[in-house]
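Thread: Modeling a multi-component assembly for a lab meeting

Hi all, long-time lurker, first post. My supervisor asked me to bring a structural picture of a complex we are working on to next week's group meeting, and I have zero experience with this. I have the sequence lines for every component (634 residues in total). Could someone generate the structure of the whole assembly? Inputs are pasted exactly as I received them:
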Amino acid sequence: MKGNIVKYARDNIDTDVIIPGQYLKVHDYTELATHAMEGLDPDFHSKVKEGDFILSGKNFGCGSSREHAPIALSHSGVKAILALSFARIFYRNSVDGAFLLPIEIDQDAYDGISEGDEIDIDISTNEIKNLTKNQTYKMKPFSEIIGKIIAAGGLFKYKPDQD
Amino acid sequence: MGKTLFEKIWESHIVVEKQNEPALIYIDRHLVHEVTSPQAFDGLRMNNRKVRRPDLTIATMDHNVPTSDRTLPILDQTSAVQIKTLENNCKDFGIKLFDINSPNQGIVHVIGPQLGITLPGSTIVCGDSHTSTHGAFGALALGIGTSEVEHVLASQTLWLEKPKTFEVRVEGKRKNPHAVTAKDIILSIIKNIGTAGGTGTVIEYRGEGITDLSMDQRMTICNMSIEGGARAGLIAPDQKTFDYLRDREYTPKNYESLVDSWKENLKTDSDATFDKTFTLNINEIAPQVSWGTNPGMTCDVDESIPSPDDFSNGDDNQKRGAEKALEYMALESGTMIEDIKIDRVFIGSCTNARLEDLIEASKIVQGQKVASSVSAMVVPGSQMVKKQAEEMGLDKIFIDANFEWREAGCSMCLGMNPDILSPGERCASTSNRNFEGRQGNGGRTHLVSPVMAAAAAINGHFVDVRKLDLN
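Re: Modeling a multi-component assembly
Sure thing. I ran the full set together rather than chain by chain. Output:
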Protein backbone atom coordinates (compact mmCIF):
# COMPACT_ATOMS: atom_id res chain seq x y z
CA MET A 1 0.00 0.00 0.00
CA LYS A 2 1.67 3.20 -1.22
CA GLY A 3 0.87 6.77 -0.33
CA ASN A 4 2.25 10.15 0.62
CA ILE A 5 2.59 11.54 4.12
CA VAL A 6 0.75 14.43 5.72
CA LYS A 7 2.67 15.00 8.97
CA TYR A 8 1.40 16.55 12.19
CA ALA A 9 4.39 16.56 14.51
CA ARG A 10 2.51 16.66 17.79
CA ASP A 11 0.96 14.37 20.38
CA ASN A 12 -2.66 14.11 21.53
CA ILE A 13 -4.52 14.89 18.31
CA ASP A 14 -8.06 14.55 19.64
CA THR A 15 -11.25 13.62 17.85
CA ASP A 16 -12.67 17.09 18.49
CA VAL A 17 -10.08 18.60 16.15
CA ILE A 18 -10.36 15.68 13.70
CA ILE A 19 -14.07 16.42 13.36
CA PRO A 20 -15.48 19.25 15.49
CA GLY A 21 -18.73 18.56 17.39
CA GLN A 22 -20.85 20.84 15.25
CA TYR A 23 -20.47 18.40 12.32
CA LEU A 24 -21.66 15.31 14.20
CA LYS A 25 -25.11 16.07 12.82
CA VAL A 26 -23.84 15.62 9.24
CA HIS A 27 -24.82 12.23 7.83
CA ASP A 28 -23.43 12.63 4.33
CA TYR A 29 -19.90 11.23 4.51
CA THR A 30 -18.64 13.23 1.53
CA GLU A 31 -19.72 16.43 3.24
CA LEU A 32 -18.32 15.21 6.57
CA ALA A 33 -14.96 14.68 4.85
CA THR A 34 -14.79 18.35 3.83
CA HIS A 35 -14.53 19.19 7.55
CA ALA A 36 -11.88 16.59 8.46
CA MET A 37 -9.07 18.02 10.61
CA GLU A 38 -10.78 21.41 10.44
CA GLY A 39 -10.09 22.09 14.10
CA LEU A 40 -6.34 21.73 13.57
CA ASP A 41 -5.57 22.42 9.94
CA PRO A 42 -8.22 24.24 7.87
CA ASP A 43 -6.15 23.50 4.71
CA PHE A 44 -6.29 19.73 5.20
CA HIS A 45 -9.21 19.14 2.86
CA SER A 46 -7.58 20.99 -0.01
CA LYS A 47 -4.18 19.34 0.40
CA VAL A 48 -5.05 15.71 1.19
CA LYS A 49 -5.13 13.26 -1.74
CA GLU A 50 -6.70 9.84 -2.21
CA GLY A 51 -4.36 7.25 -0.74
CA ASP A 52 -2.47 9.60 1.61
CA PHE A 53 -1.27 8.63 5.08
CA ILE A 54 -1.21 10.81 8.20
CA LEU A 55 1.86 10.68 10.45
CA SER A 56 1.60 11.89 14.02
CA GLY A 57 2.84 11.47 17.60
CA LYS A 58 1.46 9.83 20.71
CA ASN A 59 -2.16 9.20 21.73
CA PHE A 60 -3.68 9.91 18.30
CA GLY A 61 -7.49 10.05 18.36
CA CYS A 62 -7.92 10.70 22.07
CA GLY A 63 -11.18 12.00 23.48
CA SER A 64 -14.67 11.48 22.18
CA SER A 65 -15.82 8.07 20.89
CA ARG A 66 -17.25 9.61 17.71
CA GLU A 67 -16.77 7.15 14.83
CA HIS A 68 -17.22 10.22 12.63
CA ALA A 69 -13.47 10.81 13.16
CA PRO A 70 -12.10 7.81 11.23
CA ILE A 71 -15.05 8.12 8.80
CA ALA A 72 -14.19 11.75 7.98
CA LEU A 73 -10.51 10.88 7.46
CA SER A 74 -11.32 7.79 5.41
CA HIS A 75 -13.70 9.69 3.15
CA SER A 76 -10.99 12.33 2.68
CA GLY A 77 -8.92 9.59 1.07
CA VAL A 78 -6.69 8.74 4.06
CA LYS A 79 -5.85 5.02 4.06
CA ALA A 80 -3.72 4.77 7.19
CA ILE A 81 -2.62 6.71 10.25
CA LEU A 82 0.97 6.16 11.35
CA ALA A 83 1.36 7.24 14.97
CA LEU A 84 3.60 6.60 17.97
CA SER A 85 0.48 5.43 19.83
CA PHE A 86 -3.33 5.53 19.59
CA ALA A 87 -6.24 6.13 21.93
CA ARG A 88 -8.15 2.85 22.12
CA ILE A 89 -11.66 3.86 21.01
CA PHE A 90 -10.35 5.58 17.87
CA TYR A 91 -8.15 2.56 17.18
CA ARG A 92 -11.07 0.12 17.40
CA ASN A 93 -13.40 2.42 15.44
CA SER A 94 -10.85 2.56 12.62
CA VAL A 95 -10.73 -1.21 12.18
CA ASP A 96 -14.33 -2.05 13.19
CA GLY A 97 -15.74 -0.18 10.24
CA ALA A 98 -12.71 -0.98 8.03
CA PHE A 99 -12.23 2.76 7.56
CA LEU A 100 -8.45 2.97 7.74
CA LEU A 101 -5.41 1.21 9.20
CA PRO A 102 -4.06 2.49 12.54
CA ILE A 103 -0.35 1.70 12.40
CA GLU A 104 1.88 2.03 15.43
CA ILE A 105 5.39 3.14 14.58
CA ASP A 106 8.56 3.67 16.57
CA GLN A 107 10.59 6.82 17.07
CA ASP A 108 12.91 6.05 14.09
CA ALA A 109 10.01 6.08 11.67
CA TYR A 110 8.47 9.13 13.33
CA ASP A 111 11.70 11.10 13.09
CA GLY A 112 12.73 9.73 9.67
CA ILE A 113 9.54 10.34 7.71
CA SER A 114 8.81 13.88 6.54
CA GLU A 115 5.82 15.67 5.07
CA GLY A 116 5.26 14.55 1.47
CA ASP A 117 7.48 11.44 1.63
CA GLU A 118 6.24 8.49 -0.42
CA ILE A 119 5.75 5.46 1.81
CA ASP A 120 5.07 1.80 1.08
CA ILE A 121 3.40 -0.11 3.94
CA ASP A 122 3.42 -3.90 3.93
CA ILE A 123 1.35 -5.31 6.78
CA SER A 124 2.29 -8.89 5.87
CA THR A 125 5.96 -8.20 6.72
CA ASN A 126 5.32 -5.30 9.14
CA GLU A 127 7.66 -3.13 7.10
CA ILE A 128 7.38 0.50 6.18
CA LYS A 129 9.56 1.62 3.26
CA ASN A 130 10.30 5.29 2.76
CA LEU A 131 10.65 5.40 -1.05
CA THR A 132 11.62 9.08 -1.01
CA LYS A 133 14.52 8.60 1.40
CA ASN A 134 15.27 4.94 0.72
CA GLN A 135 14.88 3.95 4.37
CA THR A 136 13.04 1.04 5.96
CA TYR A 137 11.36 0.95 9.38
CA LYS A 138 9.46 -1.67 11.34
CA MET A 139 5.83 -1.16 12.25
CA LYS A 140 4.44 -2.67 15.44
CA PRO A 141 2.52 -5.79 14.33
CA PHE A 142 -1.22 -5.79 14.86
CA SER A 143 -2.31 -7.98 17.75
CA GLU A 144 -3.64 -11.29 16.47
CA ILE A 145 -7.15 -10.17 17.32
CA ILE A 146 -6.99 -6.85 15.48
CA GLY A 147 -5.22 -8.49 12.53
CA LYS A 148 -8.14 -10.88 12.17
CA ILE A 149 -10.75 -8.12 12.25
CA ILE A 150 -8.74 -6.21 9.61
CA ALA A 151 -8.33 -9.32 7.46
CA ALA A 152 -12.06 -10.01 7.68
CA GLY A 153 -12.86 -6.46 6.53
CA GLY A 154 -14.41 -5.16 9.74
CA LEU A 155 -16.30 -6.16 12.85
CA PHE A 156 -19.43 -7.38 11.08
CA LYS A 157 -17.46 -9.68 8.79
CA TYR A 158 -15.29 -11.09 11.56
CA LYS A 159 -16.02 -14.65 12.68
CA PRO A 160 -13.98 -16.37 15.37
CA ASP A 161 -11.89 -19.38 14.34
CA GLN A 162 -13.84 -22.62 14.38
CA ASP A 163 -12.65 -25.44 16.60
CA MET B 1 -4.01 -15.95 43.27
CA GLY B 2 -6.78 -13.47 43.96
CA LYS B 3 -8.68 -11.52 41.37
CA THR B 4 -9.34 -7.84 40.85
CA LEU B 5 -12.87 -6.45 40.74
CA PHE B 6 -12.46 -5.89 36.99
CA GLU B 7 -11.41 -9.51 36.42
CA LYS B 8 -14.42 -10.78 38.34
CA ILE B 9 -16.89 -8.70 36.32
CA TRP B 10 -15.12 -9.60 33.06
CA GLU B 11 -15.12 -13.34 33.78
CA SER B 12 -18.78 -13.37 34.77
CA HIS B 13 -19.72 -11.86 31.39
CA ILE B 14 -17.71 -14.05 29.00
CA VAL B 15 -19.86 -15.70 26.36
CA VAL B 16 -16.92 -17.06 24.34
CA GLU B 17 -13.21 -16.77 25.02
CA LYS B 18 -10.46 -18.61 23.19
CA GLN B 19 -6.73 -18.11 23.09
CA ASN B 20 -5.64 -15.37 20.67
CA GLU B 21 -9.20 -14.33 19.98
CA PRO B 22 -11.08 -11.42 21.43
CA ALA B 23 -13.57 -12.39 24.11
CA LEU B 24 -17.25 -12.13 23.35
CA ILE B 25 -18.65 -10.23 26.34
CA TYR B 26 -22.31 -10.05 27.33
CA ILE B 27 -23.70 -6.54 27.78
CA ASP B 28 -26.24 -5.95 30.55
CA ARG B 29 -27.27 -2.40 29.70
CA HIS B 30 -27.00 -0.39 26.48
CA LEU B 31 -27.55 3.36 26.69
CA VAL B 32 -28.31 5.11 23.42
CA HIS B 33 -28.34 8.80 22.41
CA GLU B 34 -29.12 10.73 19.26
CA VAL B 35 -25.63 11.39 17.89
CA THR B 36 -23.82 8.04 17.69
CA SER B 37 -26.83 5.81 16.96
CA PRO B 38 -28.46 6.78 13.61
CA GLN B 39 -25.98 4.87 11.43
CA ALA B 40 -26.23 1.85 13.75
CA PHE B 41 -30.02 1.68 13.33
CA ASP B 42 -29.59 2.17 9.56
CA GLY B 43 -27.22 -0.82 9.60
CA LEU B 44 -29.82 -2.98 11.38
CA ARG B 45 -32.45 -2.06 8.79
CA MET B 46 -30.11 -2.76 5.88
CA ASN B 47 -29.47 -6.25 7.21
CA ASN B 48 -33.02 -6.96 8.37
CA ARG B 49 -31.92 -7.28 11.97
CA LYS B 50 -33.90 -6.55 15.10
CA VAL B 51 -32.68 -5.18 18.40
CA ARG B 52 -31.95 -8.34 20.33
CA ARG B 53 -32.82 -7.03 23.79
CA PRO B 54 -34.88 -3.84 23.58
CA ASP B 55 -35.67 -4.37 27.28
CA LEU B 56 -31.98 -3.84 28.14
CA THR B 57 -31.66 -0.80 25.90
CA ILE B 58 -32.52 2.73 27.08
CA ALA B 59 -32.39 5.91 25.01
CA THR B 60 -32.45 9.63 25.64
CA MET B 61 -31.48 12.76 23.75
CA ASP B 62 -28.81 14.91 25.32
CA HIS B 63 -25.98 15.98 23.00
CA ASN B 64 -27.66 18.50 20.74
CA VAL B 65 -30.93 19.33 22.54
CA PRO B 66 -31.54 23.03 23.16
CA THR B 67 -31.31 24.03 26.82
CA SER B 68 -33.61 27.01 26.33
CA ASP B 69 -37.44 27.03 26.42
CA ARG B 70 -38.62 23.58 25.32
CA THR B 71 -42.10 24.67 24.42
CA LEU B 72 -40.55 26.36 21.36
CA PRO B 73 -39.62 24.47 18.17
CA ILE B 74 -35.98 23.46 17.63
CA LEU B 75 -34.54 26.05 15.26
CA ASP B 76 -31.46 24.11 14.15
CA GLN B 77 -32.90 21.83 11.48
CA THR B 78 -30.09 19.27 11.52
CA SER B 79 -30.50 18.84 15.30
CA ALA B 80 -34.26 18.58 14.91
CA VAL B 81 -33.77 15.82 12.33
CA GLN B 82 -31.33 13.91 14.56
CA ILE B 83 -33.75 14.11 17.51
CA LYS B 84 -36.69 13.03 15.37
CA THR B 85 -34.61 10.17 13.96
CA LEU B 86 -33.95 8.82 17.45
CA GLU B 87 -37.67 9.02 18.24
CA ASN B 88 -38.49 7.07 15.08
CA ASN B 89 -35.74 4.50 15.68
CA CYS B 90 -36.88 3.87 19.26
CA LYS B 91 -40.47 3.48 18.10
CA ASP B 92 -39.55 1.14 15.23
CA PHE B 93 -37.30 -1.07 17.36
CA GLY B 94 -39.32 -0.99 20.60
CA ILE B 95 -36.77 0.85 22.75
CA LYS B 96 -37.67 2.85 25.87
CA LEU B 97 -36.96 6.52 25.16
CA PHE B 98 -36.84 9.45 27.58
CA ASP B 99 -37.62 12.15 25.05
CA ILE B 100 -37.08 15.86 25.23
CA ASN B 101 -40.29 16.39 27.22
CA SER B 102 -39.77 13.51 29.64
CA PRO B 103 -39.16 14.34 33.33
CA ASN B 104 -36.40 11.68 33.11
CA GLN B 105 -34.58 13.32 30.17
CA GLY B 106 -30.99 14.31 30.78
CA ILE B 107 -27.38 13.52 30.06
CA VAL B 108 -27.30 9.76 29.61
CA HIS B 109 -24.61 9.30 32.28
CA VAL B 110 -26.57 11.33 34.80
CA ILE B 111 -29.91 9.61 34.28
CA GLY B 112 -28.62 6.00 34.27
CA PRO B 113 -27.66 6.04 37.96
CA GLN B 114 -30.57 8.30 38.97
CA LEU B 115 -33.07 5.86 37.53
CA GLY B 116 -31.41 2.77 39.02
CA ILE B 117 -30.50 1.48 35.55
CA THR B 118 -26.80 1.46 36.43
CA LEU B 119 -26.08 -1.53 38.68
CA PRO B 120 -22.95 -2.86 40.41
CA GLY B 121 -21.21 -5.76 38.71
CA SER B 122 -22.97 -5.15 35.40
CA THR B 123 -21.53 -4.38 31.98
CA ILE B 124 -22.74 -1.12 30.49
CA VAL B 125 -21.94 0.37 27.10
CA CYS B 126 -22.88 3.57 25.32
CA GLY B 127 -21.68 5.29 22.17
CA ASP B 128 -20.02 7.94 24.29
CA SER B 129 -16.57 8.01 25.83
CA HIS B 130 -17.82 9.27 29.20
CA THR B 131 -19.67 6.01 29.81
CA SER B 132 -16.83 5.42 32.27
CA THR B 133 -18.94 7.51 34.71
CA HIS B 134 -21.04 4.44 35.62
CA GLY B 135 -17.91 2.71 36.94
CA ALA B 136 -18.51 4.68 40.16
CA PHE B 137 -21.09 1.99 40.99
CA GLY B 138 -18.72 -0.92 40.38
CA ALA B 139 -20.02 -1.49 36.85
CA LEU B 140 -17.71 -2.20 33.92
CA ALA B 141 -18.79 0.70 31.73
CA LEU B 142 -17.22 1.22 28.31
CA GLY B 143 -17.49 3.94 25.71
CA ILE B 144 -17.82 2.48 22.22
CA GLY B 145 -18.08 3.61 18.61
CA THR B 146 -21.05 3.40 16.28
CA SER B 147 -20.07 0.05 14.68
CA GLU B 148 -19.97 -1.45 18.15
CA VAL B 149 -23.31 0.21 18.99
CA GLU B 150 -24.78 -1.65 16.02
CA HIS B 151 -23.13 -4.88 17.16
CA VAL B 152 -24.61 -4.56 20.66
CA LEU B 153 -28.06 -3.64 19.31
CA ALA B 154 -27.99 -6.73 17.12
CA SER B 155 -26.42 -9.23 19.53
CA GLN B 156 -26.27 -7.76 23.08
CA THR B 157 -22.57 -8.70 23.00
CA LEU B 158 -19.22 -7.17 22.05
CA TRP B 159 -15.89 -8.58 20.89
CA LEU B 160 -13.35 -7.08 23.26
CA GLU B 161 -9.64 -7.36 23.89
CA LYS B 162 -9.13 -7.90 27.59
CA PRO B 163 -7.82 -4.66 29.11
CA LYS B 164 -4.95 -4.54 31.59
CA THR B 165 -5.57 -3.53 35.20
CA PHE B 166 -4.42 -0.21 36.69
CA GLU B 167 -4.71 0.56 40.39
CA VAL B 168 -4.95 4.25 41.25
CA ARG B 169 -4.68 4.64 45.02
CA VAL B 170 -5.90 7.90 46.50
CA GLU B 171 -4.54 8.24 50.02
CA GLY B 172 -5.01 10.83 52.72
CA LYS B 173 -7.67 13.36 53.61
CA ARG B 174 -8.41 16.74 52.09
CA LYS B 175 -8.11 19.61 54.59
CA ASN B 176 -11.08 21.46 53.11
CA PRO B 177 -13.32 19.06 51.17
CA HIS B 178 -15.66 21.87 50.09
CA ALA B 179 -12.81 23.71 48.35
CA VAL B 180 -10.76 20.76 47.12
CA THR B 181 -13.18 18.48 45.30
CA ALA B 182 -13.38 15.23 43.40
CA LYS B 183 -12.70 17.25 40.23
CA ASP B 184 -9.40 18.40 41.70
CA ILE B 185 -8.49 14.82 42.61
CA ILE B 186 -9.11 13.48 39.10
CA LEU B 187 -7.39 16.44 37.41
CA SER B 188 -4.39 15.84 39.71
CA ILE B 189 -4.36 12.18 38.73
CA ILE B 190 -4.43 12.99 35.01
CA LYS B 191 -1.78 15.69 35.45
CA ASN B 192 0.46 12.99 36.94
CA ILE B 193 -0.26 9.93 34.78
CA GLY B 194 -0.75 11.91 31.54
CA THR B 195 -3.53 11.79 28.98
CA ALA B 196 -2.33 8.41 27.72
CA GLY B 197 -1.27 7.06 31.12
CA GLY B 198 -4.21 4.67 31.31
CA THR B 199 -4.25 3.52 27.67
CA GLY B 200 -5.47 -0.05 27.31
CA THR B 201 -6.33 -0.37 31.01
CA VAL B 202 -9.30 -0.38 33.33
CA ILE B 203 -8.51 1.80 36.34
CA GLU B 204 -9.72 0.79 39.78
CA TYR B 205 -9.74 3.79 42.11
CA ARG B 206 -9.03 2.71 45.68
CA GLY B 207 -8.05 4.07 49.05
CA GLU B 208 -9.42 6.32 51.76
CA GLY B 209 -9.52 9.32 49.42
CA ILE B 210 -12.04 7.44 47.28
CA THR B 211 -14.19 5.69 49.89
CA ASP B 212 -14.61 9.08 51.62
CA LEU B 213 -16.36 10.46 48.51
CA SER B 214 -20.12 10.61 47.94
CA MET B 215 -21.62 8.85 44.90
CA ASP B 216 -21.93 12.15 42.99
CA GLN B 217 -18.24 12.79 43.63
CA ARG B 218 -17.22 9.25 42.68
CA MET B 219 -18.99 9.72 39.34
CA THR B 220 -16.84 12.82 38.68
CA ILE B 221 -13.72 10.69 39.26
CA CYS B 222 -14.78 7.78 37.02
CA ASN B 223 -16.17 10.13 34.37
CA MET B 224 -12.72 11.48 33.54
CA SER B 225 -10.96 8.08 33.39
CA ILE B 226 -11.11 8.41 29.61
CA GLU B 227 -9.17 11.70 29.83
CA GLY B 228 -6.34 9.61 31.29
CA GLY B 229 -6.68 7.28 28.30
CA ALA B 230 -8.28 4.39 30.23
CA ARG B 231 -10.99 2.13 28.78
CA ALA B 232 -12.97 2.44 32.00
CA GLY B 233 -12.76 3.44 35.65
CA LEU B 234 -14.12 1.40 38.55
CA ILE B 235 -14.83 1.92 42.22
CA ALA B 236 -15.81 -1.06 44.37
CA PRO B 237 -19.40 -0.69 45.57
CA ASP B 238 -20.01 -0.12 49.29
CA GLN B 239 -22.88 0.91 51.56
CA LYS B 240 -23.04 4.37 49.92
CA THR B 241 -23.50 2.71 46.54
CA PHE B 242 -26.21 0.33 47.77
CA ASP B 243 -28.09 3.14 49.56
CA TYR B 244 -27.93 5.40 46.49
CA LEU B 245 -29.55 2.84 44.19
CA ARG B 246 -32.28 1.65 46.58
CA ASP B 247 -35.85 2.65 45.59
CA ARG B 248 -35.05 4.28 42.27
CA GLU B 249 -37.59 4.06 39.45
CA TYR B 250 -35.90 1.06 37.77
CA THR B 251 -34.22 -0.53 40.81
CA PRO B 252 -34.75 -4.32 40.49
CA LYS B 253 -37.44 -5.85 42.70
CA ASN B 254 -35.02 -8.36 44.26
CA TYR B 255 -32.68 -5.54 45.23
CA GLU B 256 -31.80 -6.67 48.77
CA SER B 257 -30.72 -10.11 47.64
CA LEU B 258 -28.65 -8.52 44.89
CA VAL B 259 -26.98 -6.32 47.51
CA ASP B 260 -26.09 -9.41 49.53
CA SER B 261 -24.36 -11.01 46.56
CA TRP B 262 -22.64 -7.74 45.56
CA LYS B 263 -21.27 -7.36 49.10
CA GLU B 264 -19.77 -10.80 48.87
CA ASN B 265 -18.40 -10.70 45.32
CA LEU B 266 -17.71 -7.20 44.09
CA LYS B 267 -14.32 -6.45 45.54
CA THR B 268 -10.68 -6.93 44.65
CA ASP B 269 -9.20 -9.81 46.61
CA SER B 270 -6.46 -8.86 49.07
CA ASP B 271 -3.91 -11.01 47.22
CA ALA B 272 -4.84 -9.78 43.73
CA THR B 273 -2.25 -7.90 41.72
CA PHE B 274 -2.57 -5.09 39.19
CA ASP B 275 -0.56 -4.61 36.00
CA LYS B 276 0.22 -1.06 37.07
CA THR B 277 -0.16 1.16 40.15
CA PHE B 278 -0.12 4.89 40.86
CA THR B 279 -0.63 6.55 44.23
CA LEU B 280 -1.78 10.11 44.87
CA ASN B 281 -1.75 11.61 48.34
CA ILE B 282 -4.41 14.28 48.69
CA ASN B 283 -3.49 15.74 52.10
CA GLU B 284 -2.02 18.82 50.46
CA ILE B 285 -3.63 19.05 47.03
CA ALA B 286 -4.96 22.38 45.78
CA PRO B 287 -7.88 23.31 43.53
CA GLN B 288 -6.84 22.63 39.91
CA VAL B 289 -7.15 24.80 36.81
CA SER B 290 -6.26 23.61 33.31
CA TRP B 291 -4.19 26.14 31.34
CA GLY B 292 -3.67 24.25 28.06
CA THR B 293 -5.53 22.24 25.45
CA ASN B 294 -5.69 18.82 27.05
CA PRO B 295 -6.69 17.83 30.59
CA GLY B 296 -3.10 16.90 31.47
CA MET B 297 -2.09 20.55 31.07
CA THR B 298 -3.27 21.53 34.52
CA CYS B 299 -1.76 23.25 37.55
CA ASP B 300 -2.65 24.36 41.08
CA VAL B 301 -4.71 27.53 41.41
CA ASP B 302 -1.92 29.23 43.38
CA GLU B 303 0.73 28.44 40.78
CA SER B 304 1.73 30.26 37.61
CA ILE B 305 1.52 28.84 34.10
CA PRO B 306 4.60 26.66 33.49
CA SER B 307 7.06 27.29 30.68
CA PRO B 308 6.95 24.73 27.83
CA ASP B 309 10.47 23.65 28.90
CA ASP B 310 9.42 22.95 32.47
CA PHE B 311 6.25 21.22 31.32
CA SER B 312 7.90 18.98 28.73
CA ASN B 313 10.71 17.37 30.74
CA GLY B 314 12.82 17.33 27.59
CA ASP B 315 10.23 15.74 25.29
CA ASP B 316 10.12 17.72 22.01
CA ASN B 317 6.51 16.95 21.15
CA GLN B 318 5.38 17.81 24.67
CA LYS B 319 7.23 21.11 24.43
CA ARG B 320 5.75 21.92 21.03
CA GLY B 321 2.32 20.91 22.33
CA ALA B 322 2.65 23.27 25.28
CA GLU B 323 3.81 26.13 23.02
CA LYS B 324 0.88 25.62 20.68
CA ALA B 325 -1.48 25.35 23.63
CA LEU B 326 -0.30 28.64 25.11
CA GLU B 327 -0.64 30.31 21.70
CA TYR B 328 -4.19 28.95 21.28
CA MET B 329 -5.13 29.91 24.83
CA ALA B 330 -3.49 33.37 24.46
CA LEU B 331 -1.58 32.85 27.71
CA GLU B 332 2.02 33.38 28.74
CA SER B 333 4.26 31.32 30.98
CA GLY B 334 4.66 32.86 34.40
CA THR B 335 1.16 34.36 34.53
CA MET B 336 -0.46 33.59 37.88
CA ILE B 337 -3.63 31.52 37.46
CA GLU B 338 -5.55 33.93 39.71
CA ASP B 339 -4.72 36.78 37.30
CA ILE B 340 -6.50 35.11 34.36
CA LYS B 341 -9.73 36.96 33.53
CA ILE B 342 -12.66 35.04 32.14
CA ASP B 343 -15.63 35.89 29.90
CA ARG B 344 -17.94 32.91 30.39
CA VAL B 345 -18.78 30.34 33.04
CA PHE B 346 -20.35 26.96 32.32
CA ILE B 347 -21.55 24.82 35.22
CA GLY B 348 -22.76 21.65 33.58
CA SER B 349 -21.84 18.33 31.82
CA CYS B 350 -21.74 14.66 32.81
CA THR B 351 -18.66 15.48 34.89
CA ASN B 352 -20.15 18.08 37.22
CA ALA B 353 -23.87 18.78 36.85
CA ARG B 354 -25.37 16.57 39.53
CA LEU B 355 -27.27 17.88 42.54
CA GLU B 356 -24.29 18.01 44.88
CA ASP B 357 -22.30 20.00 42.31
CA LEU B 358 -25.05 22.60 42.12
CA ILE B 359 -25.45 22.74 45.93
CA GLU B 360 -21.72 23.35 46.40
CA ALA B 361 -21.58 26.01 43.69
CA SER B 362 -24.68 27.75 45.08
CA LYS B 363 -22.96 28.31 48.44
CA ILE B 364 -20.46 30.59 46.70
CA VAL B 365 -23.08 32.32 44.60
CA GLN B 366 -25.62 33.01 47.35
CA GLY B 367 -26.13 36.74 47.87
CA GLN B 368 -23.51 37.63 45.23
CA LYS B 369 -23.67 38.86 41.64
CA VAL B 370 -21.87 37.56 38.58
CA ALA B 371 -19.12 40.02 37.58
CA SER B 372 -20.40 42.48 34.98
CA SER B 373 -17.84 41.29 32.43
CA VAL B 374 -18.93 37.64 32.74
CA SER B 375 -21.81 35.68 31.27
CA ALA B 376 -22.59 32.56 33.32
CA MET B 377 -24.93 29.61 32.99
CA VAL B 378 -25.98 26.54 34.93
CA VAL B 379 -27.14 23.53 32.91
CA PRO B 380 -28.38 20.78 35.24
CA GLY B 381 -27.35 17.28 34.22
CA SER B 382 -30.90 16.00 34.07
CA GLN B 383 -34.44 17.28 34.38
CA MET B 384 -34.60 15.37 37.67
CA VAL B 385 -31.54 17.21 39.00
CA LYS B 386 -33.15 20.44 37.84
CA LYS B 387 -36.38 19.67 39.67
CA GLN B 388 -34.59 18.65 42.88
CA ALA B 389 -32.48 21.81 42.74
CA GLU B 390 -35.57 23.95 42.23
CA GLU B 391 -37.27 22.31 45.20
CA MET B 392 -34.28 23.42 47.26
CA GLY B 393 -34.45 26.97 45.83
CA LEU B 394 -31.07 26.71 44.12
CA ASP B 395 -32.48 28.08 40.86
CA LYS B 396 -33.40 31.28 42.66
CA ILE B 397 -29.90 31.65 44.12
CA PHE B 398 -28.33 31.34 40.68
CA ILE B 399 -30.90 33.50 38.87
CA ASP B 400 -30.66 36.25 41.53
CA ALA B 401 -26.92 36.30 40.94
CA ASN B 402 -27.51 36.71 37.16
CA PHE B 403 -26.70 33.15 36.14
CA GLU B 404 -28.85 31.66 33.41
CA TRP B 405 -30.74 28.58 34.62
CA ARG B 406 -31.27 26.11 31.78
CA GLU B 407 -32.92 22.82 30.82
CA ALA B 408 -30.84 19.62 30.96
CA GLY B 409 -28.38 18.49 28.28
CA CYS B 410 -24.72 18.25 27.30
CA SER B 411 -24.83 21.89 26.20
CA MET B 412 -21.59 23.84 26.19
CA CYS B 413 -19.44 20.83 27.06
CA LEU B 414 -19.14 19.98 23.37
CA GLY B 415 -20.70 22.77 21.36
CA MET B 416 -23.31 20.78 19.42
CA ASN B 417 -26.27 22.96 20.38
CA PRO B 418 -26.53 26.77 20.38
CA ASP B 419 -24.61 27.01 23.69
CA ILE B 420 -21.13 27.76 22.36
CA LEU B 421 -18.23 30.10 22.98
CA SER B 422 -17.42 32.77 20.41
CA PRO B 423 -13.87 32.79 19.00
CA GLY B 424 -11.45 34.10 21.62
CA GLU B 425 -13.87 33.82 24.55
CA ARG B 426 -12.38 32.37 27.73
CA CYS B 427 -14.50 30.04 29.82
CA ALA B 428 -14.26 28.56 33.30
CA SER B 429 -15.97 25.25 32.69
CA THR B 430 -16.88 22.29 34.90
CA SER B 431 -16.77 19.97 31.87
CA ASN B 432 -14.13 17.38 30.97
CA ARG B 433 -12.28 18.49 27.83
CA ASN B 434 -10.31 21.63 27.05
CA PHE B 435 -9.45 20.58 23.48
CA GLU B 436 -9.12 23.29 20.83
CA GLY B 437 -12.56 24.31 19.63
CA ARG B 438 -14.35 21.85 21.93
CA GLN B 439 -16.77 24.50 23.28
CA GLY B 440 -16.97 26.39 20.00
CA ASN B 441 -14.51 27.35 17.28
CA GLY B 442 -11.71 29.46 18.80
CA GLY B 443 -13.14 29.16 22.32
CA ARG B 444 -10.70 28.83 25.24
CA THR B 445 -11.61 26.38 28.00
CA HIS B 446 -10.28 26.13 31.55
CA LEU B 447 -11.40 22.99 33.36
CA VAL B 448 -12.29 23.55 37.00
CA SER B 449 -14.58 22.28 39.76
CA PRO B 450 -18.09 23.72 40.27
CA VAL B 451 -16.97 25.83 43.26
CA MET B 452 -14.00 27.19 41.32
CA ALA B 453 -16.27 28.02 38.37
CA ALA B 454 -18.78 29.75 40.65
CA ALA B 455 -16.07 31.81 42.35
CA ALA B 456 -14.63 32.78 38.96
CA ALA B 457 -18.07 33.93 37.83
CA ILE B 458 -18.45 36.24 40.84
CA ASN B 459 -14.93 37.65 40.66
CA GLY B 460 -14.34 37.76 36.90
CA HIS B 461 -11.08 35.83 37.32
CA PHE B 462 -9.92 32.62 39.00
CA VAL B 463 -9.70 32.71 42.78
CA ASP B 464 -8.41 30.16 45.25
CA VAL B 465 -11.61 28.92 46.86
CA ARG B 466 -9.65 27.72 49.90
CA LYS B 467 -9.62 31.38 50.94
CA LEU B 468 -13.42 31.52 51.02
CA ASP B 469 -15.75 30.41 53.80
CA LEU B 470 -17.54 27.42 52.31
CA ASN B 471 -18.98 25.67 55.35
